[in-house]
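Tutorial, part two.
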Amino acid sequence: MGPPHPRWQVLFPSSFCVSTSPVRTLCLVVALMVVMATPCPKSCHCSERNGVVVQCVSRSLDQIPPDLPEDTVTLLLSSNRISHIPNQAFKDLRRLKELDLSHNHIESIDAGAFLGVSEGLRSLDLSNNQLRSVPKEAFTKLSARIRLSNNPWHCECSLQEVLRELRLDPETVNEVSCHTSVQDEYAGRPVIQVLDSGINFCNFHHKTTDVAMFVTMFCWFAMVIAYVIYYVRHNQEDAKRHMEYLKSLPRSSQISKDFDTASTVL
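Running the prediction step on this input gives:
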């Protein structure tokens, strides 16, 4: 039999528990009572295996259970209805090593979702969800082997930067495919194969930005030119009307002649 679990070593020192068979049996009984006293979410099943294993598979959960045992080492939440992983969803699970979130409806993951467990986590399964993108910060310091297969990924620069930092599960890496892409020709192809072929989605991002800037500048320049042309034409029309008005006025010599004629008559 293995050594007593750390949670009850405070009750019985290890030297005491290995002294005699009856005492050891007593230790195991107390250990079982401690495990049974560990709070377990109502919709889940908890068991002891070098820590608490929490099994919440197919329980129609729509969020992460809030009352998880702090000694949880394995958390199985697959085949539920979870759609969002909020910040610090697992912050109190310092011993967590395996986390299975596969076969849910996860569409979004907050940047701080795995804070508190990232360094100790060894396995993370996010396969078969509805993820199109994830923030790079969500996987900071994460050394776990990750499954991201069978999600409707949108292949662009930010996804490329995320994948560059992760340890993808080699068995499912070719199942991480571009559902959509900044370039339609890559839709349906495995992301890793596309990246290995030398494609850089961040270049597309920069090109798209450059084109947008060029179009904006062209439109602004065209508006300036149109305004200048309008201003010149408007001034030309004003000048033309003014000239026509001046031409319509009687000449000064004609006015003098008419004045002399009027004086003679008088």
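The radius of gyration is 38 Å. In part three we will examine how such features are distributed along the chain.
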